[in-house]
Write a structure and sequence with these properties.
The protein is mainly alpha-helical. It has 2 domains: about 210 residues, 3-Layer(aba) Sandwich (Rossmann fold), CATH 3.40.50.620; about 80 residues, Tyrosyl-Transfer RNA Synthetase (Orthogonal Bundle). The chain is about 50% helix and about 5% strand. The strands form 2 sheets. It has a 3-stranded parallel beta sheet. Strands 4-5 form a two-stranded parallel ribbon. The structure holds iron/sulfur cluster.
């Protein structure tokens, strides 16, 4: 039996290179993998409601994100792309799964504690139930492969526990979902400390103009022990070098040797990265501008994706209702 991919992303607007390296490139690659029958990518707009800030410009943010996905190479003929809220079956499944998920287990999810710290004035049920809804997102389509960042691994562990519990109580229904990490699962921001994130403003947008990319790369934090040009560097702890791994793979060895031997300065090293990054982004920027000329393109793709997603979701829910005694 073929495997099935599902991944969801909050509609955060224009995507950055961390989104691309950590997730989107994987989505694109999986499109060519014959191992899968469906590749399902969801704009998880219901999840976005957890944080009230994200509800501003929800539609526009979804549009910008999907436009970036398309420009990056996602093909709606090979992937189902749709908004989570347009498939109401997921909310029903979420409620059913919430009845078999122990509350104590949800309190132990590391991201819940983190979110409580981040938004102490709005500790809502959605924060706690987030992994249950995420489980519903995945298993509604009977997906077993989830290409997400390593920070989502604890959620997938919980998803497998919920699936096992459901299958034990009601009989074999869902496959257990597993994480499919990229070879570059965690991309740090230009501060070199925290994960690249739009909300932290430490990101480099895929569609940023070349000059802006250069400005952001120039402001990147490097090996802080390297104060003078003559100081030997430590590429293994430098975030600029981490990005060279992705954008300058042919010159990696040379950069590492020159850095350790103080033969290259950080300014030149960053300029090389900015140039290679811009070279990689040029075709993306062109495709994005071209797709943007059709104002209906993204909405038509989401509409079509919704129909295809609902066809799978309604079959799953018909079975689930029978299993739990609701039909
Ligand atoms: Fe980092 Fe490059 Fe400077 Fe070495 S030369 S510390 S790799 S920016």
């Amino acid at each position: 039996m073929k495997k099935r991919v599902f991944s969801g992303a909050r509609p955060t607007g224009k995507q950055h290179i961390g989104n691309y390296i950590g997730a989107i490139q994987n989505y694109v690659r999986l499109q060519e993998d014959e191992e899968f029958d469906y590749r399902i990518y969801c704009v998880v707009d219901l999840h976005a409601l957890i944080s009230l800030q994200e509800t501003e410009n929800l539609h526009q943010n979804a549009y910008e994100m999907v436009l970036d996905w398309l420009a990056a190479g996602m093909d709606p003929k090979k992937s189902i792309i749709f908004p989570q809220s347009r498939v109401p079956e997921v909310s029903e499944l979420h409620v059913i799964l919430s009845m078999i998920t122990p509350l104590g287990r949800l309190y132990r999810v590391p991201t819940f504690k983190e979110k409580v710290r981040q938004q102490p004035d709005n500790v809502n049920y959605g924060l706690l139930g987030y992994p249950v809804l995420m489980t519903g997102d995945i298993i509604l389509y009977k997906a077993d492969t989830v290409p997400v960042g390593e920070d989502q691994a604890p959620h997938l562990e919980l998803a497998r526990e919920i699936v096992r519990r459901f299958n034990n109580i009601f009989g074999e229904t869902f496959p257990e979902p597993f994480v499919r990490l990229t070879s570059f699962p965690r991309v740090l921001g230009i501060d070199g400390v925290q994960k690249m994130s739009k909300s932290l403003n430490n990101h480099i947008e895929l569609s940023a103009p070349a000059k802006e990319v250069e400005r952001r790369v120039k402001s990147m934090v490097t090996d802080q022990a390297r104060v003078y040009r003559t100081d030997p560097g430590h590429p293994e702890i430098c975030n600029v070098f981490s990005l060279h791994k992705f954008y300058s793979p042919d010159r990696l060895e040379e950069i590492a040797v020159d850095c350790r031997g103080a033969k290259i300065g950080c300014v030149d090293c960053k300029m090389m990265l900015a140039n290679n990054l811009n070279k990689a982004l040029d075709p993306f920027r062109e495709r994005r501008a071209q797709f943007a000329t059709d104002p209906n393109l993204v909405w038509d793709i989401l509409e079509d994706g919704t129909k295809r997603a609902r066809a799978i979701a309604s079959q799953t829910m018909a079975k689930v209702r029978q299993k739990v005694g609701l039909a």
